[in-house]
Design brief:
The chain is α/β, with parallel strands linked by helices. The chain folds into two domains: 133 residues, Rossmann fold; 60 residues, no CATH class. The protein has eight helices and six strands; from the N terminus they run E-H-H-H-H-H-E-H-E-H-E-H-E-E. It has a six-stranded parallel beta sheet, with helices on both faces. The chain is globular.
Length: 206
C-alpha cells in the first residue's frame, strides 16, 4: 500500500441516496412542487437533488429566491431517523489499514443523522461536514487542512467520491489522486478518470 490516507465522500459513495431519497426529501419535494417557482420538471429536480448539493440544484433550475429560502430553512432542520444500509461492497474499505477520513458537503444535522444510522463513525480518523450555510470553506480547504495536520503529501492521499465537479475536482486541483465510485456503471469509460463500480477494484489505486 503506497497511500497513507484515503478521503471518502458520503452520499452515493458509502450508501445510495436513492434508497432513502423519496422518504428523506418527501417534505422538500412537496414544498417545491406546491410553490412552482422553478424551471424544469420535478422528475429532473428530484434526480439532481439525490446527486448534488441543494444550492447547486436551486441554481440549475432557477428556483425563486423565496422558494430557495424556504427550502434552506426546511433542510437546515431536516434529519433522517430510519435505518440506512451502506453499499454491499463498502465493508471491504474497513479492511484498509491506512488513515481514513470522511469529508461530506451538506446540512450538518442531516449529514450527522445519516452517519449515525449508517454506524460508520468508528471507521474514520475524522468526520468533517462542509456546511455551505455555516461557512464559505469548501472540500478543497479541508483536504489541504487534513494534509497539513497529518503531515501528508498529495502523493500519499487518495480521494474517493461520486461527483466529478466536487471532491474529484477539488482533489485534482491539489494534485491528489482520485477514484470515481460509480456503482451504477454510468461512467466506466470516462477518459482520464480512475473509475470503479465495486470497492474490490480499489486495491490497485491504494
Amino acid at each position: 500500500m503506497t497511500k497513507k490516507a484515503i478521503i471518502f465522500d458520503l452520499d452515493n459513495t458509502i450508501y445510495p441516496v436513492a434508497a432513502i431519497g423519496d422518504q428523506l426529501f418527501k417534505s422538500l419535494f412537496r414544498t417545491i412542487e406546491n410553490d412552482g417557482n422553478y424551471q424544469g420538471t420535478m422528475g429532473e429536480i428530484k434526480a439532481e437533488i439525490m446527486r448534488k448539493p441543494f444550492q447547486v440544484v436551486a441554481k440549475m433550475y432557477a428556483f425563486s429566491d423565496a422558494l430557495t429560502t424556504t427550502c434552506l430553512k426546511l433542510l437546515t432542520e431536516l434529519t433522517y431517523d430510519d435505518t440506512i444500509a451502506p453499499f454491499d461492497d463498502y465493508a471491504l474499505t474497513t479492511k484498509l489499514t491506512c488513515l481514513k477520513f470522511l469529508v461530506t458537503t451538506g446540512f450538518k444535522k442531516l449529514q450527522l443523522s445519516k452517519i449515525d444510522h449508517l454506524n460508520i463513525k468508528d471507521h474514520f480518523e475524522e468526520i468533517i461536514i462542509v456546511d455551505p450555510i455555516a461557512s464559505s470553506l469548501t472540500k478543497k480547504n479541508f483536504f489541504k487542512d487534513i494534509m497539513l495536520r497529518y503531515n501528508l503529501t498529495p502523493n500519499e492521499v487518495l480521494v474517493i467520491g461520486d461527483d466529478l465537479h466536487s471532491e474529484i475536482k477539488a482533489a485534482k486541483e491539489l494534485g491528489i489522486a482520485t477514484v470515481l465510485y460509480d456503482y451504477l456503471g454510468e461512467n466506466e469509460s470516462l477518459p482520464g478518470e480512475n473509475v470503479i463500480t465495486n470497492y474490490q477494484q480499489l486495491k490497485k489505486y491504494v
